[in-house]
Amino acid sequence: MNNWDCWGLLSSGAPLDEYKLEIKYIVNALPQIKNHMDFANIIKDVFDKAFGEEHSLEDCIKISEAI
């Protein structure tokens, strides 16, 4: 998630644990994930809610496949 840095917060000097809460939510959802599309949708849902803006599903698919 830090490599993705979807909002550029880390590259702007935010602490390395900036996405800690989002990562926690994603880790807690792992038992529900059956494939990379499930993973992408969970990433999208978590980050959409956390930042109040829509993220591209395509970007979330890319990060889910990379992880």
Write up what this structure looks like.
By secondary structure, the chain is mainly alpha-helical. It has one domain. The chain has three helices and no strands. The chain has helices at 20-28, 36-51, 57-66. The protein starts with 19 loop residues before the first helix and ends with a helix.
User: For the terminal residues, how far apart are their CA atoms?
Assistant: 9 Å
Q: Give the H and E element order.
A: HHH
* Poorly predicted runs: none
| Main sheet characteristics | none
Percentage of residues assigned to helices: 40-55%
- The overall number of domains is 1
- The counted number of beta strands is 0
What radius of gyration results from the CA coordinates? 11 Å
**DSSP helical segment count:** 3
Strand content: under 5%
Strand and helix layout:
Layout: H1 20-28, H2 36-51, H3 57-66
